[in-house]
Every structure is written in structure tokens, then in C-alpha cells.
Design a protein that fits this description.
It is a single chain. The chain has 249 residues and is of the alpha+beta class. The protein folds into two domains: 208 residues, Immunoglobulin-like; 39 residues, no CATH class. It has six helices and 13 strands. The protein has a six-stranded mixed β-sheet with strand order 2-13-12-4-7-9, with no helix packed on it. Helix 5 packs across helix 6. The N and C termini lie far apart (57 Å). The longest helix has 24 residues.
């Protein structure tokens, strides 16, 4: 976001807060310093700042979820001294990225029932399989799914910090890893008082490939066969060119 646009956004935020409160007034107003994360050649991760303000006292909780996708979890077993995939389970509509941040520890600002209802925290995510499973098997594969996502840095087990600047203004930094999936992310902002949500807002964040990388990726998706043929041809050409100096030796 350019400095000029950022100033306009901040001015709009402050104007909304300064306006007289009415039936449609919001108790929390928030925005991002940028609504687009552009993935180009050499992208190694970045961060986006969420800033906002509250109308009155309260605690702020931020939940960031990536686009939902089906994910396969495989279980390996040793067969004849070789480890092979013997079982697999598909989880449907799983957040591809998940992170939270709060102004205080979750246990201090929200009861467990509320956290479960709003799916706040990794333990409270509703992860469903494409077919019924025994409870023990479902729990085993669910643990493996979360573990894999944590290992890849796409699920953050520890809550980030929402910092208040004075009594009303707040901010937090959302880290975007290098291997982040593309798509539309939803940044949910909750204002809590007395262990209850009193206001909320959702801010979109787009993660997208740009430039030559995006064009190649799009071509590979749309024309998979042609892309495969071109890749083989280029590899053969590269091998032939590499052999030319040795032919003349």
C-alpha cells in the first residue's frame, strides 16, 4: 500500500471512530497496511500489519485463515523392511493457513465454549474427514494433519501479540511464510468484553503470484499435457546443447 493510500485509510478509520455512535456504529474498526501479498521470483516471506481501534474498553482477538482445501494424510507402515503408505485419510475444507493473535492469553479473555464455537485455536478447529472413521483413528490422523502443517510453518501453535497503543488503538503483525498458499485469506477481528464477543469485523487479504512465475503456473494448470511436452523438449534441448563442447573435443 502506497503512503498516500495508507494515509487515506488511516483518515477514514479515524473519521469512523470520531463519528457519533448510532444504531450501525461498529465497536471495532480494523484494516491492513496492504491487502495484497505478491509472490514473485525470490519471494522468501513477508509480513502485513493489522491496525485498528476500539470503541470503549475490551480485548482484541485476531484469527487469520487461509483458503480452504482438501488435504490427504497418509500413514506409513513397515512391510518387508520397507516403509510404505498403508492408510490414508482425506480431510475436507481445511484452512491452508491458520494463525491467531490476542491482546491477552486466550484463557483470560474467552471461555472454552466460545473458543470452540468460533473455532479459535488449533484444538478447536472443526476438521472433518470425507468418510466416517472410528474416533481413535480420526484423532490420530487429525493430530498428524496439524503436526504436518505446523512443521511447514502454515499453522502457528503460539498466539501472536496484539499491542494496544493507548486505550483504543491497536496493532499486530501477521507473518506470511515463503511457502504460503495462494488465494483469499480472511482476517477476523473480534472485540471481547466480559468473556463475550461484542463486535467483529472481517478483512480480506489476497495472496497471489505475479509476473512470469504466475503465467507459467497458469499455463501448467490449463494445459498440463502441452506443458509436460514442452518441459521434456526443453530438457532434451538443454542436454543436447550441454554435449556440444564435448563432441568437438
Amino acid at each position: 500500500m502506497s503512503p498516500g493510500i495508507r494515509r487515506v485509510a488511516l483518515a477514514g478509520l479515524l473519521a469512523a471512530l470520531a463519528a457519533p455512535l448510532g444504531a450501525h456504529a461498529q465497536s471495532v474498526v480494523a484494516d491492513l497496511t496492504s491487502h495484497l501479498v505478491a509472490i514473485t521470483t525470490g519471494f522468501n516471506g513477508t509480513s502485513v500489519v493489522l491496525f485498528g481501534a476500539t470503541e470503549g474498553a475490551g480485548d482484541v482477538l485476531v484469527v487469520v485463515q487461509g483458503p480452504a482445501r482438501d488435504m490427504i494424510v497418509r500413514h506409513k507402515s513397515k512391510v518387508a523392511a520397507v516403509w510404505v503408505n498403508t492408510r490414508q485419510v482425506t480431510f475436507t475444507a481445511v484452512p491452508s493457513f491458520y494463525a491467531i493473535a490476542s491482546s491477552k492469553p486466550l484463557a483470560e479473555i474467552a471461555p472454552s465454549g466460545l473458543l470452540q464455537l468460533q473455532q479459535i485455536g488449533l484444538d478447536n478447529l472443526h476438521l472433518t474427514t470425507d468418510r466416517p472413521l472410528p474416533a481413535a483413528d480420526a484423532a490420530e490422523f487429525r493430530t498428524a494433519l496439524v503436526r504436518n502443517q505446523e512443521r511447514d510453518g502454515l499453522y502457528l501453535p503460539e498466539a501472536g501479540q496484539v499491542t494496544f497503543l493507548g486505550n483504543r488503538l491497536f496493532r499486530t503483525t501477521i507473518g506470511i511464510p515463503a511457502n504460503v498458499p495462494t488465494g483469499i485469506y480472511l482476517v477476523q477481528v473480534f472485540l471481547l468484553r466480559n468473556n463475550a464477543v461484542v463486535s467483529g469485523q472481517t478483512v480480506p487479504l489476497v495472496v497471489s503470484e505475479l509476473g512470469v512465475d504466475a503465467e507459467v503456473h497458469d499455463f501448467a494448470d490449463r494445459y498440463a499435457f502441452a506443458y509436460g511436452v514442452a518441459a521434456v523438449a526443453l530438457a532434451a534441448l538443454a542436454g543436447w546443447l550441454a554435449s556440444l563442447p564435448f563432441r568437438n573435443a
